[in-house]
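We close this part of the discussion by returning to an individual protein. Part of our work consisted of pairing the sequence of a single chain with a tokenised description of its backbone. What the numbers capture is local backbone geometry rather than side-chain detail. The amino acid sequence and the backbone structure tokens for this protein are reproduced below.
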Amino acid sequence: MPEARWKGGAAPPDIAARCPYQRQVHGEGQGGRKIPDVLCAGCDYNFCVKPLTIYTCKLTAEQASALGAALAARNWQTREVPYARFAFESPKANVVFYESGKLVVQGKGTAEFVEFLLEPEILKQAKVGYETVLNPELLLPRIGVDESGKGDFFGPLCIAGVYVNEAVIKSWADLGVRDSKNISSAKKIGELAEKIRKTPGCVVNVVAIGNEAYNRLYAKMKSVNAMLAWGHARVIENLMGLRYQMDPPPVKAISDQFAASKDVIEKALMAAGREIELVQRHKAEEDIAVAAASILARDEFVKGLARLEKQFAIKLPKGASAAVDAAAKELVEARGVEDLARVSKMHFRTALRAQGLPEPPKTEWKKR
């Protein structure tokens, strides 16, 4: 059932729970503006519901083909989007289906598109507005943890943690909190990060490992996964130290499973971190708490990289690419290897190429 609030003021607390007879209608908002309402056919209470403006899901190849045909038949306009199999737009909504199999719908017409086309014709199921009824665990108080900078040669490694509860989750309904990898604009990342930090009831923590500290840790640990485990554990422990600010206390901490063994983080946790259930799973960023953490971690990474660019007066590209190789070589030629170590992760092969050193043979990765 959609989140509802009584149009005439504070809703009687038990109304939404006791009235299963609800249907969506259109009512008048302030200034005559049309807003979606829920009119209860059982008791005639009228609720105002926040409109859905973004929706994501996975589609099979068959579902994607059917959706593309349905949009073309309705004369939706096609458009070019990087890494997309197809993309359509209308005056009310944009629809993008990515090579990964992920569908993203955005715009003021999102709810109408999902309820009247996607669900009945493609997915053959109705879920919009009923997510928390179908899966009550979505509202449980919890901590989400994620990192940014792991695959970037330049810049720090940043790990962030975010505590959410039911009120926080509901307040983000229209905010567009999602995995930071699906947000291409650094400006948008910064805006979302600021809103996340300022959300009442939300508690956050970020551990940023600068490049000099990163290189020392790597020399000691000899493993990126071990460093990630250490960083995730520190963030969880830092947040557990702030649990007096959390109402109610978190029931679990969720993070992406970045290592073959799930006990990598558990072994790095100390007493405070072991007081909470740790859940590690692939694609954990689909959880809103982990998605929020990914945004804070990326924001910290982007800001850290910008500070390095200003300090060393050189452009430091993100990721690992030919442009990154060129920038690394330029920095070594202009300032020496010592400064390269201050802005980069020296175990990357990029560091060897920048110094004109031979690269060791690549070892084939094999699943254990």
